[in-house]
Amino acid sequence: MVDFCEEAKEVTDLFRISGEFNYLIKIQTATIEEIAAFQDSLVKLGPSKSHICMKNILENGVLL
């Protein structure tokens, strides 16, 4: 996973988490099609689940 994320230009952050899945991958793309292509590339690593952030409301304790 780490090697995959280091090579993927869309990945901005990688977190090790607890729960149903082991990792949280933060990506940034310009289009929905780029998100779909990234998800397609994840298939070889196993099952995944996606969530899309619509708006950042609070960052580093600062209300945006």
Automatic annotation (TrEMBL):
InterPro entries: Dimeric_a/b-barrel, Tscrpt_reg_AsnC/Lrp_C. It comes from the Bacteria. Residues 6-55 form the Transcription regulator AsnC/Lrp ligand binding domain. This is Transcription regulator AsnC/Lrp ligand binding domain-containing protein. It comes from Paenibacillus brasilensis.
